[in-house]
Design a protein that fits this description.
Length: 360
Amino acid sequence: MKYIGSKNFDHGMRPRVGVLLTNLGTPDAADSKALRKYLRQFLWDPRVVEIPRPVWWLILHGIILRIRPSRSAANYRKIWTERGSPLMFHTSDQAQALGRTLQARFGEQLIVDFAMRYGTPDIAGTLQGMIDQGVTKLLVLPLYPQYSGATTGSTFDALGADFTRRRWLPQLRFVSQYHDHPAYISAVADSIRAHRERHGSADKLLFSYHGEPRRYLDQGDPYHCQCHKTTRLVAQELGLSESSYLTTFQSRFGKAEWLQPYTDATLKTLPGQGIKSVQVVCPGFAADCLETIEEIGEENRDYFLSAGGETFDYIPCLNSEPGHIEALAAIIAEQLSGWLDDIDDSANTKARALALGAAH
């Protein structure tokens, strides 16, 4: 095997600390060709679909990639903007804002970049660019607050696969979850509070998380439990009664049982229970994307209103809002503890102060 080195390597290069944000990914365009390429990579990941490879290859290439790309492209066209995919530009904005925030506190020896698990910019290419800039210590933060093997676990798989091909490896820290971090909980609660100050409250608040097959829970994946904990902590911070909110799961695929209750089925039944207004928030998504803008904001809105509901509000994801950037900065500062000594002592003091403040 030929191992990957660093371009223009200089043994006297000043070491840097790198923070790599990752998210799921998005097609490069809202057309069938781009969707086919993206879905081929995404759905072939054994973490995403746990079906024996020979059987799944026939299903994927014989059926799904012949039908689904055109349908998915039509949905992506509904949310596509002048800046392209919302998930892409929101993640880019988050990385830039975090870069400015962290460099202002810790100096330019700390750099921030982002990559996508599927599609572009890919993890391998982004990681190479960071190493070429002198990164010797790497913190990876997958933007999934709740751990799931299909998301966070898959991201670690991609890192590991890349590292097996590298001549030299940076020191690595990996944030596997932050579903109950006080700064994150406060940021979610603040976004709901701000929305309600502008628009008023609703009969019911739904916390909708991306679903996963029920068998993952039965086999030990903590995602379901962490989603419920996030909901409970946010509700406590807002002072909500247990009857005023629900936790539901969206985006199921295939015929197997997924985590319940399902968001779409719940919204179809609520009007019959006398619930005429709902607000939906998606605390499992760090950035707005197809599943939040189109699936929740349009498709599920129609389900609720068609069933007799009167008012439906979608509360946007945290995206690059200042409160979210501060929360992510607090999480990162805690994880960087001890690494910033090589940059300067004052920066490390700031990191400790920031982490201590987040804990309170």
